[in-house]
Amino acid sequence: MLQEQTIREAISFNGVGLHSGAAVNLRILPAPAGTGICFRRADLDGFTIEAVGRNVARVSYATSLMKRGVLISTTEHALSALMGAGIDNAILELDQLELPILDGSAKPFLDAIHRVGSKRQRRHRVYWRIVQPVELSEGDKFLAVYPAERYSVSYTIDFPRPIGLQTFELDLSGNAYERQIAPARTFGFLRDERALRNMGLIRGASEENAIVLTDTGVKNGPLRFPDEFVRHKILDLIGDLALLGHRILGRVVANRAGHAMHTALVSRLLRDRSLWEEAHISSEEPAREANASVEPVLANR
Asked: Which of 66, 43, 135, 163 is nearest to 74 (CA)?
């Protein structure tokens, strides 16, 4: 059975918050088995906020966590990278309320994790295997998860030109996340800049950390993928679903969803224990996945 993992040694980053514009230092630290992913405010006497659904706060333009009035903002890219790297236990220590945006993707986080390596721990990793379909809808937005033996995502977006309609689907076993999702950057329309800044948002945004779109095209190309926009939405989704505290075995289908709907799905799964069962698996490698055993954990039912 697959075991939980942490990183082998601490990793340091510095940068600015996408929305706050504030300079921030971040360290990702190894953590004992069973810890999960936690954020620690070094500027507030080490106050800790667990990366779990019950702590979700504002989810308009980024996924934020709050506990007893203490905020951690824009968590999704780092959480996505940790999930993509197979890290179950880590402490993210920062000296501001918002994580650094870096280049706008999960790649800098993932590359740093790969540089230090991961460490297996003695505790077996517990997955949540979806056993009943869950569907959420709001207007033309839709998000669902269906029973499956592997974790896969199909995402559709429909934005004004020059993005338009894009769909991307992938199986998240093996190194698919690293190659196809992690490098995809966040994006925004130049015409929205003034309104967003007036709302106190994107104060740290620049052409170095976001794809900037005009009415006719990409201002700061080239793109890393022709469909980088929808791939970034999958990156965000993976980070938001990390707030379950467990990886899932299921097929996620999204259409024009966003952070609020992602975290609504997290809340639904956390509330209703009949929708999933705990399971162990023996492999996530794509070549072996079809024959990988999936063993329900019945002791906690």
From this structure: 66
Q: What are the Cα distances from residue 194, in Å, to 5, 150, 189?
A: 43, 43, 10
Structure tokens at 188: 């925004």
Is 259 an annotated catalytic residue?
yes
Give the model's pLDDT for residue 297: 55
Catalytic residue among 232, 259, 262, 280: 259
Residue 24 half-sphere exposure toward CB, CA atoms < 13 A: 26
Pair 30, 119 in one domain: yes
Same domain assignment for residues 139 and 115:
no
Q: Tokens 């009415």, residue?
A: 215
- Residue-wise pLDDT for 287-297, tens only, equals 333 334 455 55
Number of folded domains that form the chain: 2
Tell me which residues of the chain have a pLDDT lower than 50. 287-293, 298-301
The residues pairing with 120 across neighbouring beta strands, listed in sequence order, are 5
d(CA 196, CA 214): 15
| In a shared domain, residues 40 and 170 | no
Q: Do 266 and 244 form a contact (C-beta atoms < 8 A)?
A: yes
94 and 140 share a domain?
no
What is the model's pLDDT at position 253? 98
DSSP category for residue 23: E
